[in-house]
Amino acid sequence: MINLLPESQKNELRSARANVVLLRYNIITIVAIILLGLFCALFYVILSSDKNTAIVQNEQSSAESKKYSDTRKQADMFKKDLALASKIFSKEVNYTDTIFAIASVLPQGVVLDSLDLNANSFGNETVFTAHAKDQASVTRLKDSFQKSKEHFENAHFQTISDTNAQNGNNNGDKAYPITVNISVKIKKVTQ
């Protein structure tokens, strides 16, 4: 039957079908463009929301970091104070241990005239003035300083004088007639 239609109608029917197909393609394209526009608008809204959230979080983070920067400054100050305290304690001199070390090397029959220690006494030659009952005690004093290598080094006599022999008086009126000046290098006792 279609073959019986005139050629002009056939052309119109073909054109009508082509127009329907083109109209469908146009509608599909317009719907696709609208959907693409909606997706773009949706992504824009989501990205704007994320941007605003990130800005708010950044402001909160900077506020918190300011709080922490104060804490960090305090921690740095505390660290510097600890370093200073450590430096001070490393230079600290423990006089008690040194005094006990000196007392432990004094043999029986020897007494110190005086004891004057300061920070400069350590590592340098220090002179002790002692009084002894006899020459054997003087020798034991030097030997004791030399044997105590943990605390002392380089022990040697500077002067030895016998007050009874100088005065010509041997009646023993003085309990410790021999005066000795002994030079000793005191080692710093480490904790």
Which key terms come to mind for this protein?
191 residues; four-stranded antiparallel beta sheet; alpha+beta; Gyrase A, domain 2
Structural summary, described in words:
With 191 residues, the protein is α+β, with helices and mostly antiparallel strands. It has 2 domains: 2-88; 95-186, General secretion pathway protein M, EpsM (Gyrase A, domain 2, 2-Layer Sandwich). It has 4 helices and 4 strands. The model has no long low-confidence stretch (mean pLDDT 86).
* Named CATH topology of the largest domain: Gyrase A, domain 2
Q: Largest sheet, described in full?
A: 4 strands, antiparallel
User: How many structural domains can be distinguished in the coordinates?
Assistant: 2
Q: Based on helices, strands and strand pairing, what is the structural class? A: alpha+beta
Number of strands: 4
Order of helices and strands: HHEEHEHE
**Strand residue content:** 15-25%
How far is it from the N-terminal to the C-terminal residue, by CA?
A: 120 Å
What CATH architecture of the largest domain do you see? 2-Layer Sandwich
* Gyration radius over CA: 52 Å
Q: Which spans of ≥5 residues are poorly predicted at pLDDT below 50?
A: none
Name the CATH class of the largest domain.
Alpha Beta
| Tally of contiguous helical segments | 4
Give, in spatial order, the strands making up the sheet with the most strands: 1-2-4-3
- Binned, the helix content reads 55-70%
Q: Whole-number average pLDDT?
A: 86
CATH superfamily of the largest domain: General secretion pathway protein M, EpsM
Shape: rod-shaped
